[in-house]
């Protein structure tokens, strides 16, 4: 942390003076580290009572080898300084390990902050030295909108009661052994998590307890987790309560679980309706389709991917296709039953046993001589999925590699086609980077041995900004014994699962025709534009669709008497009740009620990609009478995301009470009411692969004003 940021944290946290001395010492040593961390070599120096760790030597082309007697530390990977591919023994005298002077022996994976002398020990409040593993910065692609981990902004001393510093063993990597380097990285990551938990508990013992997401007080030392939810947009079920690393968050209250399951059952029931027989394809044109995704609504959802996976399956089943979805079992959903079918896969040098769960979802009831149509929802049950948050865990590569293997075995294992398995004559619709390994595994492991010869894979790109970046593992870690086609994953000294899907699928599609053209450019391809250009003959763009039954102002349940006190349905032929929807929205949001004042709405993630900063920058101009505007306008914003933008919206709502509303959160009911009652939907996205709110708005007579990009 920079000096100013650290000072702010020290002041706001009211750290005791003896802790501050150690903090200052830590910052001094850290500054020395950062100033000398430009090259890939390591040596240890000791001077008197203080020891420091220095990085020196080496070059950007050829990493300086480590001494065979010293412990190897993982270094950052970037384009200018490639990954340290091997830790070879060195005979160069300048890179040899230097023994510290005296009794201050320092291990290579530790920094010793202070060793009090025997005479001075009695006057010190603490009695044990603080040890901190050296953490090399992880360099992420500049353009990828990823969540950066929260790093420790201060280091507290170790006290005998109630805290004991964890004892860490040195991380060693024998020379010329890349396997042990990977293991050393994993071991160091585990030590970092344990140490972060210790510091969190120490801060808690001092009563220092801040909000981890606060912009000035990064109190939690644990890595951040991507905010996501795993049941019906229920934030209460998906955002884990505040806890410390290593502590298991308590389960949500049963009343919330029951309410979520009731809503899920309601959504599934809405999909079951009498279908027109004209929708059915001739028997010879019907296929068996497997939709593989990391989330499928209404069971799990963090964005539009879940909606598309759900509604596409409903539409295909109503055409007569046999449809199966495969997704992780994040939650023990009501009505989902175990099949008793299990499989075991070896991933990351461990064997994982999974069990398949199943739920039948009827989309067209039987009638008129036709059997019922529906979807076979298949869930992969394994402990690694049953956590708070679907993404952002340090073992995501293992979790989603396991999902890809399980999805390929599901058509043989789950007997849900009139008591039979689907078999291998199927089409896989593979969605986004999470299951980008599936086409590669099918080609390298199954087709080579005569399986899935008739099957085809269609890889659907939902967002090129999220590529599934991971450090390069061994092929065996992904279950690929001989590494066939493993190189298809490589890009910029790492693997990208999205690239594997693009390279190995039979067809590649994007979620809109215009986004297909954008990903072929360096700006829109996020570094993978050459891979996309190489698949141009097999690349298409298909616009996402919306559920016109759920999003229909003539029948929308949220515009009915149960939610508004009276029926506010309207249509393109008779839009008169849209004014009533506006007045109801103004009253419920505590805005000035006036049918002629225009309402501008924003619904989406509070993120840079969505252009929320563009809206925040013009709110004062928009609300004030000046050249170009009258100030006669109301603004309603709803969404979740970065605290920075959430606070800007809250502040604007406070300045212009009665004219601006900031709802930080999300509910389907409010989404429907806002779109129905507003006049203009604003979508200033910097890039948008498809986007669904603009389609909803058009159905409700609300004008979308958008940035001309992607699906917009």
How would you describe the overall organization of this protein?
With 712 residues, the protein is of the alpha/beta class. Helix content is 29%, strand content 15%. It is built from 19 helices and 20 strands. It has helices at 3-13, 17-35, 118-121, 178-205, 235-238, 254-271, 304-318, 396-413, 437-446, 497-504, 513-518, 522-525, 529-534, 561-564, 577-588, 612-623, 643-655, 668-677, 693-699, and strands at 42-47, 50-55, 288-292, 322-328, 337-347, 350-364, 373-381, 415-417, 420-421, 427-431, 456-461, 469-470, 495-496, 507-510, 539-541, 599-603, 634-639, 660-664, 680-683, 703-706. The chain has a nine-stranded mixed sheet, sandwiched between helices. Strands 18-17-16-19-20 form a five-stranded parallel sheet. A two-stranded antiparallel ribbon has the order 1-2. A hairpin with an 8-residue loop joins β6 and β7. α16 (612-623) runs parallel beside α17 (643-655). It is globular. The model is unreliable at 1-15, 33-178 and 209-240 (pLDDT under 50).
Give structural attributes.
single chain; 712 residues; alpha/beta; nine-stranded mixed beta sheet; five-stranded parallel beta sheet; 29% helix; disordered N terminus
